[in-house]
Amino acid sequence: MHIPSNPLTPKKMKKTTLILAILMFSCMGMMAQVKVGKYKDWKKTIDLLEVKASYDFTGRKTVILLPVETKDVKLPDKGNDNYKLVVKSLDNLTKSVATELQKNLQKQGYKVVVAENADVRDPEAIVLQLNWTEFDLGSRALRAWVGFGAGNAGFGTDGVFYDGDNAVITFSHRRIAPLDIKDYEKLAAKGVRELSEDLAKMILGL
To answer: In what order do the strands lie in the sheet with 126-136?
Structure first.
């Protein structure tokens, strides 16, 4: 009886294993991508997400946060007790968001870096641009007299993810915060923290 020799020599087996590994990781990268389209309540985390073009963030562990834009935030009247707190919070918003993102992403091996200007692009990183749209600390008077959610605090942002020079993903998200905290400074920090937690979940899901 003729027994055929093993056609896979050690050298061929090594080459075959390498090819299979490459194919496997390529498929993993493709599966991680979100398909082009619009998504409401995406993964029960982000209110509205739109993938405008195919992208590939596979292997990228650096998140570059561009300076957060705040020009669209409606400020309270200057006579409002919270006016100075809101202005101060907005001035420090880029640093605050970066800190919260780092807390939520570091266990997965990510590093969050703050860019010096809005023109920074890096094909080896995930570049995130935020346009903060709402920083409302609410009204205890409205909550007491009207109820039904009136007077609650609200925090919101629009955003863009860049893959190289291309804006591939846009999103819009808002968080409502019941006035269960008497300290408005803690309320402001909580709003930024919880919205940033949602942003971190989005990054991990892309």
So the answer is: 37-42, 46-51, 166-177, 153-163, 126-136, 62-65, 111-114
